[in-house]
Amino acid sequence: MKQIIHIASRELSTFFDSLTAYVLIVIFLGFSGFFTWVYGADVFFVGQANLNTFFMVAYWSLFIFIPALTMRSIAGELKAGTLELLLTKPVSDWQLILGKFVSILLLIVITLAPTIIYYFTLWAIGPVDHSAILLGYVGLLLMSMVYISIGLLTSCIASNPIIASLSALSIGIFFHIIFDVLASNFVGFLGNFFSYMSLSTHFESISRGVVDTKDLIYFLSIVFFCLFTSKMILSNRNL
Amino acid sequence: MDIVVEHLTKRYGPQKAVDNVSFRVKAGEVLGFLGPNGAGKTTTMKAISCFIKPEEGDILVGGYSIHEHPEIIKKNIGYLAENNPLYQEMNIIDFLEFIAKIHGIPKYLIPERILDMIRTCGLEGEKHKLIGELSKGYQQRVGLAQALIHDPEILILDEPTTGLDPNQIVEIRKLIKRIGKEKTVILSSHILAEVEATCDRILIINNGRIVVDGTAAELRKQAKGNEILKLGVQGACIKDIFDCLLEIETIDSIDILDEDKHLFEIQSLPDTFSAKAIFDTCVQNNFYITELTPTETKLEDIFRELTLH
């Protein structure tokens, strides 16, 4: 556990040292703030005290940002040779993978944290569905976990960060939208299957304010599958 | 801690990088690992430090197998990898602190250990710099510092002196010798003088197999064949000298090294010595000797002889 924290905190400080974190936070807050409060279907236009617009912007921008954060996590270490440095220290493959996972998740939490202000602002101007907003955040975090784990997996497979990032995006797009589109084109078993596989189905159901164990199992099983496969790939390396 | 390597085999595709290698290193011994490029030195060292898993064979470090207890082994090993990978974007102190934490050094001891390492490895002037800003020699020192910070029982150094200037090389050798008094050290190199200067025992590896295992003195003894002398004689033309030398019974062959300076290389028959006979011949013929040196078989020659086939 301690090793995971040490690795995660080192990783996190690297994000801040290299300005990646600041750029991410500024762009994310800029985008989400603009579309939530200023332009388009913003809060005032919708006329309801909810943050659905914000969740939709976050849903898309995190999907695009996360592969850029995960792409270097394993592939970069492998390229720089620092994987050898880490894994000859008392660090197991699991601890390394989880350390990387936690560091990026923490960065996402830090990025999302300032948007709590949106919630309080909304609370001040109208009756808010508290559980829907709370669960919206939970949904964003679960979704981030899925994309982080997919990103880690591709970063384990590809030795080139760019390839890792692009393949994470292309795997992600299936969960993000393609399964949803397919679901609407099929009926019966296939329709249900694609609808279940689509991340947006589960995200929407959670951000409506309903927690279903089915949704939780969906998110966590993808995360577990990706992390487990990453670990297996890392363990079977032939360097 | 002892290291016992048993029938280690590691393949990369169809190629065997290490082929059924077995050896032992006793606690407190400094072992030099020699071999041409691609001989399997690095692979063996990576296997001992639990970075790669060999297909066959086992390595026991202090009685623990690399297959079952890698965590315990890793705790007791300080490893400096060949190309010295470091986090370039971190500064030296942060980096060493991170490594110390990973090793589970108690928090109150960490500043002391870091300072100690900075002093030992001569990094005082650079300690606030980013690792990426350091010259190669200083990076190598940081690599050594991270390998030594948890005071390991075993030190594995893969070509520790590459990129260092001659003064630094001498310093690092001294450091290794000092550490080697208490700890087990395995170091690899293809510089023979380095291994001879620092190691108790030499292991020469070629094409994944061990070809020699012994001390430098033993190696020399083993390879020493016939007596070879370098001889310079003046006082007559080179042809006359050559003819006179040929008459000496104990001489096997004569090579002319330099016609102007009259230099010869003389090889004696097995178990015979020709120096006295040469001297007598020169006296009889009124020649005078300008040079007479026994040529010692160099470790380099032994190395070449053993690894070229």
Describe this structure in words.
The complex is a heterodimer of chains A (239) and B (309). Chain A has 239 residues and is mostly helical. Chain A has one domain. In chain A, 82% of the residues lie in helices and 0% in strands. Chain A has 13 helices and no strands. In chain A, α7 packs across α9 and α9 packs antiparallel against α12. Chain A is globular and about 60 Å long. The model of chain A has no long low-confidence stretch (mean pLDDT 88). By secondary structure, chain B is α/β, with parallel strands linked by helices. Chain B folds into two domains: 220 residues, Rossmann fold, CATH 3.40.50.300; 71 residues, Alpha-Beta Plaits (2-Layer Sandwich). Chain B has a six-stranded mixed sheet, with helices on both faces. At the A-B interface, α1 and α6 of A face α2 and α3 of B.
Which key terms come to mind for this protein?
heterodimer; A: 239 residues; mainly alpha; 13 helices; 82% helix; B: 309 residues; alpha/beta; Rossmann fold; Alpha-Beta Plaits; 2 domains; 6-stranded mixed beta sheet; 4-stranded antiparallel beta sheet; 11 helices; 14 strands; elongated
What is the terminal separation of chain B in angstroms?
A: 35 Å
Taking the sheet with the most strands of chain A, its summary is: none
- Helix count of chain B equals 11
Taking all Cα atoms into account, the compactness measure Rg of chain B is 25 Å
Helix content of chain A: over 70%
Structural class of chain B: alpha/beta
Give the domain tally of chain B: 2
Radius of gyration of chain A: 19 Å
Number of domains of chain A: 1
